């Protein structure tokens, strides 16, 4: 029979073994990829969800106040509907791509930190890692463009909002409020023959007070912030995948040199 001291010693060894196993497992977690995945999912969700609703509100504002003839804004409506379908595709693609990059992060982190004594990198695995590095760089550059594009409606809505705020300001000392207008035709949103194409004075102030304008303006801001968060997430992915790929490539050379 085991004495109490021997039983306590066995329990301490079991606890030490579990603790070391947990530390080893935590050491294999790709924290950079995990943070990037959470940030990417959050950014894409904000961009796609808020962008979709904001585009719908924009169409309502244009149809109600700036272009009352359907044929004048028919092309714009089609473009917005196409952009909404693209948003569905972007959300689905980045959901799958984020999961794949996270799984690839677990794979490469395990290889880099050598959690398994018999683990060997293969040419196929290194090629897949290199492909993800290249694709992530391409997506990062593309999302920089998306981030810049998402700032355009924020700028347009801010111009309208600031104009309305100027008219309502008691310090403005305006003599003729009706002479202040916002003409959306100059931005190329609708054609020059659209009717009325612009809003002036009290009409413009009423537009800025509508729920569609208020909601769309703030949703565009959130969508732009979501695009910025996605850019940051892709930058983190770039650094993590590039580092892991470089280490895997170095390990493969080291294995070749020590094979004989």
Which features does this protein show?
single chain, elongated, disordered C terminus, mainly alpha, 6 helices, 2% strand, 260 residues
Task: Describe the protein in words.
The chain has 260 residues and is mainly α. It has 6 helices and 2 strands, in the order ααααββαα. The protein has helices at residues 4-27, 31-66, 74-113, 123-168, 201-208, 211-258; strands spanning 181-183, 198-200. It has a two-stranded antiparallel ribbon with strand order 1-2. Helix 2 (31-66) runs antiparallel to helix 3 (74-113), helix 2 runs antiparallel to helix 6 and helix 4 packs across helix 5 (201-208). The radius of gyration is 28 Å and the shape is elongated. 27% of the residues are buried.
Percent helix range: over 70%
Strand ordering within the main sheet: 1-2
- Succession of helices and strands: HHHHEEHH
Radius of gyration: 28 Å
- What's the count of strands? 2
Unreliable residue stretches: 115-119, 256-260
The helix count comes to: 6
Give the overall average pLDDT: 77
**How much of the residues is beta strand, in percent?**
under 5%
Shape: elongated
- How far apart are the first and last residues' alpha carbons, in Å? 51 Å
Class derived from helix and strand content: mainly alpha
Specify the biggest β-sheet. Answer: 2 strands, antiparallel
Summarize this structure briefly.
The protein is an all-alpha fold. It is 78% helix and 2% strand. The protein has a two-stranded antiparallel sheet.
């Amino acid at each position: 029979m085991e004495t109490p001291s021997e039983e306590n010693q066995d329990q301490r060894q079991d606890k030490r073994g579990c603790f070391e196993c947990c530390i080893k497992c935590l050491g294999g977690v790709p924290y950079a990829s995990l943070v990037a995945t959470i940030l990417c999912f959050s950014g894409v969700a904000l961009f796609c969800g808020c962008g979709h609703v904001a585009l719908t509100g924009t169409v309502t504002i244009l149809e109600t106040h700036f272009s009352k003839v359907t044929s004048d804004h028919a092309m714009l409506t089609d473009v917005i509907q196409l952009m909404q379908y693209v948003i569905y595709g972007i959300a689905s693609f980045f959901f799958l791509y984020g999961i794949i990059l996270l799984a690839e992060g677990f794979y490469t982190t395990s290889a880099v930190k050598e959690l398994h004594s018999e683990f060997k990198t293969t040419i196929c695995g290194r090629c897949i890692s290199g492909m993800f590095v290249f694709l992530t760089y391409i997506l990062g550059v593309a999302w920089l463009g998306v981030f810049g594009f998402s700032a355009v409606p924020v700028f347009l809505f801010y111009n309208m909002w600031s104009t309305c705020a100027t008219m309502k300001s008691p310090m403005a000392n305006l003599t003729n409020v009706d002479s202040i207008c916002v003409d959306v035709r100059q931005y190329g949103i609708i054609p020059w023959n659209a009717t009325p194409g612009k809003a002036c004075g009290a009409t413009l102030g009423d537009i800025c007070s509508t729920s569609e304008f208020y909601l769309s303006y703030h949703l565009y801001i959130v969508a732009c912030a979501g695009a910025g968060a996605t850019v940051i997430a892709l930058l983190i992915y770039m650094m993590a995948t590039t580092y892991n790929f470089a280490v895997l490539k170095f390990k493969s050379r080291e294995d070749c040199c020590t094979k004989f």
